[in-house]
Amino acid sequence: MAKIVVDVMLKPEILDPQGSAVSAALPRLGFTFAKSVRQGKRFEIEIEGEPTAAQLAEVEVAAEKLLANPVIETFVVRVEK
Amino acid sequence: MAKIVVDVMLKPEILDPQGSAVSAALPRLGFTFAKSVRQGKRFEIEIEGEPTAAQLAEVEVAAEKLLANPVIETFVVRVEK
Amino acid sequence: MKVGVVTFPGTLDDRDAARAVTTGGATAISLWHKDADLKGVDAVILPGGFSYGDYLRCGAISRFAPVMEKIIDAAKGGMPLLGICNGFQVLCETHLLPGALTRNSELHFLCTDQKISIENTTTAWTSSFTQGQEIVIPLKNGEGAFMCDDETLAVLEGEGRIVARYVGENPNGSRNLIAGITNERGNIVGLMPHPEHAINTLTGPTADGLGFFTSVLNAMVK
Amino acid sequence: MTLDTVTVAQSSPDQSQPFAELGLKPDEYARIKEILGRRPTSSELAMYSVMWSEHCSYKSSKVHLKQFGDKAVKTDALLVGIGENAGVVDVGQGYAVTFKIESHNHPSFIEPYQGAATGVGGIVRDILTMGARPIAVMDPLRFGPADAPDTRRVLPGIVAGVGGYGNCLGLANIGGEVVFDETYIGNPLVNALCVGVMKHSDIKLAKAAGAGNLVVLYGAKTGGDGIGGVSVLASETFDTTGSAKRPAVQVGDPFVEKVLIECSLEIFAEDLVIGIQDLGGAGLSCATSELASGGSGGMKVELDRVPLRDASLSPEEILMSESQERMCAIVEPSKIKRFLEICDKWDVTVTVIGEVTDGDRLEITWHGDLIVDVPPRTVAHDGPVYNRPLAKPEYVDRVNAEVINVPRPTTSDEIKATVLKLAAAPNLADKSWVTSQYDRYVQGNTIQSQPDDSGMVRIDEKTHLGVAIATDANANWSYLNPYEGAKLALAEAARNIATAGAKPLAVTNCLNFGSPEDPGVMWQFAESVRGLADGCLEMGLPVTGGNVSFYNQTGSVAILPTPVIGVLGVIDDVRTRTPMSFEEAGLDLYLLGETADDLAGSEWAYLHGQRGGQSPIADLQREMRLIDLLVAGRVNKVFTAAHDLSQGGLSASLTEMVLRHNVGADVTVENIGTALMSETPGRVIVAIDPSQTKTLGDLATKHQIVLTKLGTTGGDSLVINGANIPLTELRTAWTETFPKLFG
Ligand SMILES: Nc1ncnc2c1ncn2[C@@H]1O[C@H](COP(=O)(O)OP(=O)(O)O)[C@@H](O)[C@H]1O
Ligand SMILES: [Mg+2]
Q1: B2-80 is classed in which CATH architecture?
Q2: What tens digit of pLDDT does each residue of D14-24 get?
Q3: Could you tell me the pTM of the whole model?
Q4: In terms of residue numbers, what domain contains C65?
């Protein structure tokens, strides 16, 4: 059984109020490490057996069609151990 | 400039309504690869320069305190190239 | 005239939309998300609510409902189509309208009596209003901030496709105070606030919303 | 691990069992053995432990709650009384209304968002279970001090949870309360009320009758949610440092619940169920034992058929799981096909898990092995009953003897400062930071919601029949005098209904208290119940149901006694309601009722750190005359507006009235140092057109209510005894408190 991960983030030019809220909250709690924070989504997809190239291609299609909205978001598909 | 990523997922025993909804929608669109889907959050934190061990430790603390809700969520901190 | 009102699982304001249609003088026909035909309706409303719980993204799952295929075809052929709130989100997900609706800038659900100005009275749903008319109708959503790239925004502004704008303080971070937009042809309108909850002063803040439902009576399928 | 079957239990009578960890006392465990004639199996032990917990069995409160039955008023309006999932009241025109409040206090402290969300989800299923369409919710909330850091964690989460769940269900939020006090700091109160409407013929009950009928589980799959939550959280003093028990956090899925509601209503409409029960606290243990004891026979359940979200769950855990959004129905075999079709239409998971038998046992098997064999009544209804010791706490006489010593405004500057200070007090300030996160419009029948005295919904679009609901508690008065405090809360809720012109009809309640093992707390509880029962009897209002929440304390400090009382009223034509405020100048303002020096337990005293003195004594006869006057005045169109006086007294009520439509008022009162802030109960401000002066006077005389002219409406200031408070300044004070505190 393997895990395919799809990371979905808002495009850089799209306003991210959630990320901004985190950015603003961190220094209030005394954390000063962050220059900026963006918040996105992470999908963990469990599949049966090892992922094939065809399967990964299918996940790409599903990500494009359903998991991400290409108007405002970008995504990355990868296999995680 | 480097990027620290914090992945936050619901604990496995906690119900994930969003993941279930995606799981249910995929086969309706003809995608049959997924045994199960869980949906979480991904934070991309930009920092100045290369991350130090101390900085990563601080991010861990911030994740525990702010980015994740330890009652129902787990998180992983990592550096991404 | 028959106006279809679609119910997806999790739709909430369908009865209200049907009531507004009736009050406006048309006949409301209920359409189920699994329906394969449009029951001969002359126009369609995608009402508000939390279809599929708003999970993933608002409207992202509903857009694939069987009934949507027919609606998309009919709307491309000129049938008047109004998406209110969640319906607007569905229209953006189907790409019948450009842009997307994202999280309110304050990050919580906001229910308020909102003043908007009607900026385009040539659409199928706004002909009963006068240009620049200011009305007050409820706004209630968690993800109502209209976002698009600069190019799209320029096109929308340039072609007068902003149907309604918020008046006063920006309630949710929408670009250019956009509360509603239309397609090039003017038959498809997406609107974030809820005119169906402002059809009388007994149950709504005003009766200002009725104009959307009377407008469509004048719009014939071309 | 081997399965602990009935056979195994019989052959290993001396095996030790973790009854104490499950919250059972040694005598309770002995009683279970006595009932069964053997030791319980681990599954049986699980069932008894959750069902005999305080939360499910009401073991400490039962002896007191009996009064609601014993002292009950005879009324034909009550179609279903206490005991079912919720009471049902006849509101005329063939309509029945069901309403109930429940608490979700402890889970909301641990995980504010999910705790509050699942609290709403649970009460909504109770209402649905009666056969009604849920139409509106309310949320009486209590928090620690507004500026306490933990309040900043808890309040936004709870509000978001109430909204997140309720909004997604399409239920209008028509009111609630937000109250701050130190005693709630480690123990916020999240009470949730739901109201539903149906036709008389649609009423459903929790009973499993007719051998051969099927037991059907539908809705969400069962997971490990909140296992042990019921018994652990409700039976033992809440202690965050306690042993590592199963996480008691349940996560709600409002979308699944919304679909479950629509699916159930369609099933009800086709009359496909004999009995029905929602799965709340104690999950399947509760649903199966209650359904079986509600019927005439027994029940057989194959537990391995239950659809699981987590395949590793043991049978004990499945029985105890509190996974949300599940229902259990009893269905005749001839109707099951249609039942399954409707579930399929809504994509709802549905499974036949057993059948009704003509025996008298509840038998549960796991892959064919018998793991539970009990008389269902012993689980559901024959739990232990405690007559716990009670004693009037030492503090009562001491604080009652204290003399209130607070500033009393006399000059214009002092009057203005007092009004502004009260307006900005967190307990009295504008709550729209909270309420704007709730959908008040959905379903299109909301006539009144915040900031009105009561919530009001239309239930028939043609006849305009409607119902109004208000919830109230005055914990400060209950602390000083729990007997009077409960009566006063009842009176206040009834008055809040009547200001709109609705007629009070029935009562629900949520009794939030500290540990019942503390005799002082038990005394507060007993006095509150006695007060509420006496009050309801005197006012002719039946108690239709409610909820008790004990163990609300932080360490050894109990919360203030907080009996939240909900009153439901009916109004024959919502179009004729009396609004809470005026939109025009030139109206006359009058005060109905007399003002005494009632600063004990008042907001003004609280703001000055004083909690002593004597609470007012409820005069329910006068309250009833006032209610009659308000209803008659509405029917005869005497009032332009009416607004009740409560926390913050005249100052707070005038503030709310003038800010509602931004129309000022000029009033003059005698004895301003008392009159401005006193909270004497039984008072209402009314606005009338001057042409109604004589009618109002006649009404007051007829109902023997003291009438005092206050002044007139108009202008852009609130002027009190010459002190000029511009509305802009007043509005700033009133509205900025919450955004400043919570962002
Ligand atoms: N948590 C809440 N949810 C919804 N409405 C609320 C809540 N808290 C307060 N409200 C509403 O705000 C208004 C003012 O509250 P409050 O001062 O407690 O009223 P009252 O004094 O009449 O009991 C009322 O309409 C009440 O229903
Ligand atoms: Mg009131």
Answers
A1: 2-Layer Sandwich (3.30)
A2: 999 989 888 89
A3: 0.94
A4: 2-221
